[in-house]
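Chain X:
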Amino acid sequence: MISFKEYFLLQEENNNYNSIDEFREYWNSQGVKNMTDIYSGISYKYIRPVQIEVAKDKRKQGLGTAFMEDLIRFADERGLQIRLNPSDELGATSLGRLERFYKRFGLVKNSGRNKDFSISERFYRDSKNKVK
């Protein structure tokens, strides 16, 4: 039997979303409840997943990893920074474990030498493709 992550990787080329709405709807249909949106202002444009929750019956199958990989690809293709505030309110076993999960994808804690005073979120990841 093929895992969801393997299936996702096979289907990845077909996931060319025209909008953040298509991205959100696709992942909601796959069992990852999310409230991902794009925010913009005069000097910034970023993507922020406010809620990420993998359905209980779909956990431990690589679905959260696949979601994050797709989120990063979506953001990088558009030159968007990712910002988020990890929370254990939606079933994560521990906040520390969740933070380590996000760090695997290049998100950094917004503190110390990585502190960006222009943003309020606790974690962020700059796009690998700067689009002007």
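Chain Y:
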Amino acid sequence: MIDYFFQKVLAETPPSTTTPPVTAPATTTPVADTSNIFGFGFIKDKYQALSGYHDEFPRAIFGDLADKIINALIGISASLAVLMIVWAGIQYLTAYGNEDKTASAKKTIIWSLAGLAIVALVYTILNITAWIIQNIK
């Protein structure tokens, strides 16, 4: 998709129409138009037309990518914590009264639960932060 995007953008030339300069009244300071510095406005428009994203240019790409990566890492971490709890439960059941193995299994369960709580806390903090950032407009 990226190759297709760059082929389309680079194949077309930016519009060469020039508008006459706008003169400001003598009482105000003229402000430069910075919406199309170095032709990036043209690239943004072409990207939006080809991709269907009508959001801010970098956030549309990197926001989705970061969201997918974070969700995958949180899912893997939570799954690993649950598997460790199951493994510790098996160790506890097969300890047959051996105090060292029982203590080790209990310790594993406690640390696995702590890890699961940390993963849930991180997930909550990230979602709250993302919600705040999206609603600051």
